[in-house]
Design a protein that fits this description.
Elements lengths: L44 H10 L8 H9 L2 H11 L5 H13 L7 H6 L8 H12 L16 E3 L13 E3 L21 H13 L5 H12 L4 E2 L2 E2 L15
Antiparallel strand pairs: 1-2, 3-4
Helix pairs in contact: 1-4, 6-8, 7-8
Length: 246
């Protein structure tokens, strides 16, 4: 993929050109999250795809409408017959979308390699950042195979962090975080350094030093993985929000 699975916009646009309320998360590694969307209001990729298709602020369509268009296209019918043994229908459509999304995982980050025993996969500075990440308590929310994405948390515990709503958000994964600016549910932090600084104040009630921020950012850089053997890159263009909805 030519982008990080999302876009570089703080807010992508609706079909009518209005900004969406929340920042669009990357679709990479979405299948590893326990819930989908910032508000965590979807439990499965299939249900999320169905609702996204019918959401007037994103696709303004429906699974039935998509199936009707697919059935009218012989080039689309053939692959569905090969994969599912039948013409496109809603169940096959949603399964196809979800199956594709489950393929969008990005293993092989330098941190993954370090965890697997490759001692020189990360530098001393990056290791220091990881130790700081743990000692400050960042790891209490950002842990597990997706380095996050497996619980809800209140943002702005000590001080405001971006827009007030929604009060509870699904903790985002930090995989590929160095390639996915801007940050937070409202896209209000344009750089990773600013995001780390803001998180320290809002969630930990700590004013981090420039050295601490640099070390944590260095560690976060080690979480960039690969997609089909190619390095994940920062977004350079702006796909429609519906291509990166989880």
């Amino acid at each position: 993929m030519r982008t990080n699975g999302a876009s570089a916009n703080a807010h992508d646009l609706t079909p009518e050109g209005r900004p969406l309320a929340l920042n669009t998360p990357t679709v990479f590694n979405a299948s590893l999250n326990f819930r989908l969307n910032w508000e965590g209001n979807f439990r499965s990729l299939e249900d999320h795809a169905r609702q996204t298709l019918r959401n007037p602020a994103i696709m303004g369509s429906s699974a039935d409408e998509v199936v009707s268009k697919l059935r009218a296209d012989p080039e689309a019918v053939g692959p569905f017959r090969d994969a599912y043994g039948r013409e496109p229908d809603v169940a096959a459509l949603l399964d196809a979308i979800a199956t594709y999304e489950r393929s969008l995982v990005t293993p092989g980050s330098r941190f993954d390699r370090w965890l697997a025993g490759e001692a020189d996969a990360i530098t001393p500075e990056e290791l220091s950042g990881y130790q700081l990440f743990k000692s400050l308590g960042c790891i209490s929310c950002h842990q597990g195979v997706n380095v996050g994405g497996n619980l809800f948390q209140r943002h702005g515990i000590f001080h405001p962090l971006g827009s007030a709503e929604p009060v509870l958000v699904r903790v985002p994964s930090l995989r590929n975080v160095a390639t996915t600016p801007p940050y937070f549910h409202d896209g209000s932090a344009p750089t990773l350094s600013e995001a780390v600084r803001a998180m320290g104040i809002a969630q930990l009630d700590r004013v981090l030093t420039d050295g601490q921020i640099a070390a944590i950012v260095a560690f976060l850089d080690t979480l960039t993985g690969t997609y089909r053997s190619g390095a994940v890159r920062p977004a350079t263009d702006t796909p429609h929000a519906a291509t990166a909805f989880p």
